[in-house]
Amino acid sequence: MNQTVNWDRSQLKIKNRIARKRYGYDSSISCKVHHEFAKATKKHEVIPIENVLKLPKFVQDIKLTCPDHEERFFVYCDDHGVPCCAHCLQNVHAGCRNLIPIQKLIQNVKESSLLIDLETTLSDLITNITNIIEDRTANLQDLEEQKTRCKREIKAHKEAIYAYVEELETDLLDNLQKTFIEREVKIQNTLKDLN
């Protein structure tokens, strides 16, 4: 029985909901039982639909069957960089020389140097992102401290300016009063002399 895996979120949710209503069980349980009895998929692990829906979009978009012929891919055409079903192989890729069976292509994928390099690169990327997050968090804290320090300095300068203006006002008022008294005395003396 060759079934096409359909990653459409709404259809997966609906299928699971119907199975629960009609049969009283999660549809992924029937898949699990089927995989346990089938020799080829005995070691496969069945995951809940909710977990499938949490996979990144590009993973959900991976096609397991040919979109033109609804048949499972069984070879990879290295000349064109595409997987092929039996119909594609006969009709489109008959003259291609670099055909690799899918099973051979994926058999050592976990030990391949490309995967190890990718894992190393991802690990380095995660470390770099973590360092960037820590650095930016420290920058935010420093920025907050600088803002607080600047506010304190502005307030201190404002108080110093106010104190200076107060002192200047006092000096000006004192000088004004002295000058007023001197002039007043002079004017009164002049008036006395004229009387």
Automatic annotation (TrEMBL):
Transmembrane segments: none
Cell cycle is among the record's keywords: no
Record-linked InterPro entries: TRIM45/56/19-like (IPR047153)
Superkingdom: Eukaryota
Keywords tagged on the record: Coiled coil
Sections of the chain in a coiled coil: 126-160
Protein name: B box-type domain-containing protein
Gene source species: Mytilus edulis
